């Protein structure tokens, strides 16, 4: 089983994929092509995606039973000891607070306990 999800891709690419797969929702294609055809489809998707994003998930013989590939996504798959995980981008760095101030979100009791006051 293979699933391809397209976001903001040209209509021609969607039309190309309908030759091989069934579009079950806008931009979501499901099918069972051979491994060779799947590689050709993914190459075409990467070439013609333009400004869009694409994700391909397919079954394979590993512990999870599937693997996936991404194109122009902020989140990237990584292999961690045979398991495929998602690496999310780091959030924006938080500004440093001046020394002696307590970060917001702390209760008064926690602030007192932290600074040794009662």
Describe it.
The protein has 118 residues and is an alpha+beta fold. Helix content is 24%, strand content 31%. It is built from three helices and seven strands, in the order βαββαββββα. The protein has helices spanning 11-17, 35-48, 108-114; strands at 2-7, 22-25, 28-31, 53-59, 66-71, 76-80, 83-87. Strands 2-3-1-4-5 form a five-stranded antiparallel beta sheet, covered by helices on one side.
Shape: elongated
Helix content: 10-25%
**Beta-strand content:** 25-35%
Number of strands: 7
Helical stretch count?
3
Structural category is alpha+beta
The end-to-end span amounts to 62 Å
Low-confidence stretches: none
Kindly report the average pLDDT value: 84
Summarize this structure briefly.
The chain has 118 residues and is of the alpha+beta class.
Note the main attributes of this structure.
118 residues, alpha+beta, two-stranded antiparallel sheet, 7 strands, elongated
Topology (SSEs and partners):
Layout: E1 2-7, H1 11-17, E2 22-25, E3 28-31, H2 35-48, E4 53-59, E5 66-71, E6 76-80, E7 83-87, H3 108-114
Antiparallel strand pairs: 1-3, 1-4, 2-3, 4-5, 6-7
């Amino acid at each position: 089983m293979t699933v391809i999800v397209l976001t903001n891709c040209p209509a021609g690419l969607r039309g190309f994929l309908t030759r091989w797969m069934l579009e079950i929702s806008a931009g979501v294609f499901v099918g069972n092509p051979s491994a060779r055809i799947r590689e050709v489809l993914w190459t075409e998707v990467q070439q013609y995606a333009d400004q869009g994003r694409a994700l391909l998930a397919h079954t394979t013989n590993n512990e999870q039973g599937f693997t996936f590939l991404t194109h122009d996504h902020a989140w990237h798959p990584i292999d961690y000891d045979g398991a495929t995980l998602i690496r999310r981008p780091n959030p924006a760095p938080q500004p440093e607070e001046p020394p002696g101030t307590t970060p917001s979100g702390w209760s008064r009791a926690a602030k007192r306990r932290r600074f040794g006051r009662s």
